[in-house]
Amino acid sequence: MLELRSVSKVFGELSALHQVDLWIPPGKVSGLIGPNGSGKTTLVNIITGIYAPDTGQVLFNGVDIVGSTADQITRFGVARTFQNIRVFSRMTVLENVLAALISLGDPSWRVLLGFTKCANDPRLNMALKALETVDLLNEAGVVAGELSLPLRRRLEIARAFVRDPELLLLDEPAGGMTPTETANVASLIRERIAPGRTCLVIEHKMDLISDVCQHLCVLNHGEKIAEGSPDTVLEQPQVIEAYLGRD
Questions:
Q1: What is the DSSP string of 56-120?
Q2: Which residues, including other chains, have CB under 8 Å from residue 82's CB and lie 6 or more apart?
Q3: 20 to 30 Å CA-CA from 226: which of 21, 103, 185, 217?
């Protein structure tokens, strides 16, 4: 599925990632954790083509995708959400999801209204199915800027999920949420989003990580310090010292 080999990235004098090896098992939910500044976002940006690594390979289904554009990587079957929610606040919930499908056909924004008027357009049906998956079907006509934070995060997930990606990266899907809201997101990922695909969840909340992940990787200062099952990884002294802050 996804494998990183000796991936490094330097910004000026800052070594954001140093010789990181990572294997994401297919068909499972993997977690990526680490303190702020540990290199998590840089790693995800490299996987999705926003940054190119200075050294190393990123293999997706055995093919090195380094040098591919973000759009090309999306077409390969990789989708992501963002820590800072990226939805179109003045568009409706349905229009937001349809916008994620524009590149499947006519790339013009003018086709958006055409989608909503043509009940037989497969892209409209895909968008409605994605909204149903994240429990936003009743909000399809609501302007996205009027949604609460938990619903905006669900919309962000729907925008990534709608293209049925083979690999889905979720960057802090429960950011800013209460414990109850976090538990609801964990249930959504476990029961509706993860089945049938490979997921990588980047998150600070250990309750969500422990709930949904079967595999876990920990970064610190740009280096991988642990990898394995969550129960095993979270008990390792170097992880406790670097991330959990316990003695």
A1: EEEEETTEE-TT--HHHHHHHTEEE--SS----TTSBHHHHHHHTTGGGS---TTHHHHHHH-TT
A2: 156, 171
A3: 185
Show the tokens assigned to 203.
């998150």
Q: What pLDDT is stored for residue 204 in this prediction?
A: 86
Is-contact 184 178, C-beta < 8 A?
no
The series of mean pLDDT values per 10 residues for the chain, 247 residues long, is 95 94 95 91 95 96 95 94 93 94 58 56 90 97 97 97 96 94 97 96 92 95 93 89 61
What is the set of domains in the chain, with CATH numbers?
1-77+166-247 (3.40.50.300), 87-164 (no CATH)
Instruction: Give the torsion through C-alpha atoms of 72, 75, 78, 79, to 10 deg.
Output: 100
pLDDT at residue 121, rounded to an integer? 74
Measured distance CA(148)–CA(112) in Å, rounded: 24
pLDDT value at residue 119: 61
- As given in the structure block, the two tokens for residue 156 are 């962000």
